[in-house]
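Dear all,

This email documents one entry for the complex benchmark we are building for the journal club exercise. For each entry we list the sequence lines for every component of the assembly. Then comes the predicted three-dimensional structure of the complex as a C-alpha cell string, followed by one or two observations. Please use this as the template for your own entries, and keep the labels exactly as they appear.
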Amino acid sequence: MIPVAREVGSLRAIPSGGIVSPTGNPDLPREKEKQFRRELILRALQTLQQKV
Amino acid sequence: MTHESNDMNKKIRVVHYLNQFFAQLGGEEKADVGPGFKDAPVGPERALQQALGNNGEVVATIYCGDNYFAEHQEQVLEELCRRIAEYKPELVVAGPAFESGRYGIACGAVCQAAQQRLGIAAVAGMDEDNVGAGLYRKTTYIVNSGATIARMVAAVQRMAALGLKLARREAMGKPADEGYLPRGIKRNEFAAKPPAERAVDMLLAKLRGEKFTSEIAAPKFAAAKPAAPLGDLKSAVIALVTDGGLVPEGNPEGMEPGRPTRFTTIPVGGMDSLDPDKFDAVHSGYDTALANRDPNRLVPLDTLRVLERQGIIGKLHDFVHSTGGAHAAVENATLIGRQIAERLKAAGVNGVILTST
C-alpha cells in the first residue's frame, strides 16, 4: 500500500508486517515477533528523522 | 415596435453582485465597505450587459466589501435579498471572483440565498480551486472562470449564457458542455456502447498514447507540506494513531467499521501492552482475527512503552487515536486527519507512528 500512501501525499511510509497485522508477524514465535516489531518501529522512528 | 409575448424573447431582468474592487470603489482598503447598490452599470456589468445582449437587462448592481461580507454574512445576505427582491429580477449573477477566496465565498452565498430564499435563478463565476467553489458548487451553478482577470469577457459570456438558460428554466446539460463546475449529481443515461467496450476503447487509446476521457474523475489530493524531520528522539513525544479500527472491547462508542465520519481517543497512559481482552479491531476492510488476538500487531503499544522505558524516545503519548478507515470518503478522511493532528499538536506531540491496514 506504499504507492497509495505516496499518492495521497504521505511521504514517510515504510512497509509494514502486512495488511492484517501491520506491526506483527504471526508466523514467528512470540519473542521473535516482538523483536520484529521492535525493528520495524525503530525503522519508523528513523524515517521520522529523515528529510523528505 | 412589435411586442413579443413569447417567453423565450422576454428580456430577463438581472441583478449583478460584485465586490468592492469590481464595483470600482477601491481595493483592499475598501474591503470593509458595507452592502450597497448602483443603478448604473460599471465595469463587469457592462461586460455582462453586452453578453446578455437583447435577452436580458442588468437592472441593478449590488456590492459588498469582501471583509464586511465575511464578518457579517447573515446580516448582509438578509439586506441583499431584501433589495434584490425589490428589483424583481429573474436572474442573479455574482462575480466572476476568479481566485479571490473571500469574494468567491460571497458570490456563492449570494447565489445560494437568491435561489433558496427568493426562488430566483442564480449563477456565480470563479476559479475551480476557489474555496467558494468547494463550498457552493453542490447547490449553485458556478462557471469556471479560471484564475486570471484576463479571462473576464469569456467568463462573463459563459455566465450570461448559463444564467439565461437557468432563468428560462431550460434543461441544463452536463458540466463540461455548459461550462459549470460539476455539482456531484449523477444522472443515468444510455450510452451507445456497453461499458465493457468503452473501457477497452479507453485502454487501447491509453496504450497507443492517444487522448481519452475518463468517465470518472480521479480525486485530486492536495499536497500537504511534510513536517520537518524529527530532531533528537530522546526528547520526542511520540503518538500512535491507526486507521485499523482499534476500539475498546465491545466498541462502546459504536465506531463505524467503514465509511468513518469520526475517530476515537483511547487512553493508554500507564499501559504496557494492549490486552486482547480489553481491545478489539472493528474494520470492514480486513480480517481482524490476528489483530484481535494481539492488538499490538495493529498498534505497537508494547514496543513503544519499552522504547520509552529505555530512554530511546522521550515519551509515549497517553492517547491512541483510531478510526476504521475502510471506504473512507476523501473529505471525511481529511477532516478526521486534521482533527487528530490538531489534538496532537495541542498536546505537544512531536512525531506520529500511524499504522495502517
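Observations: The longest strand of chain B covers residues 56-64. Residues 1-5 of chain B have pLDDT under 50 and may be disordered.
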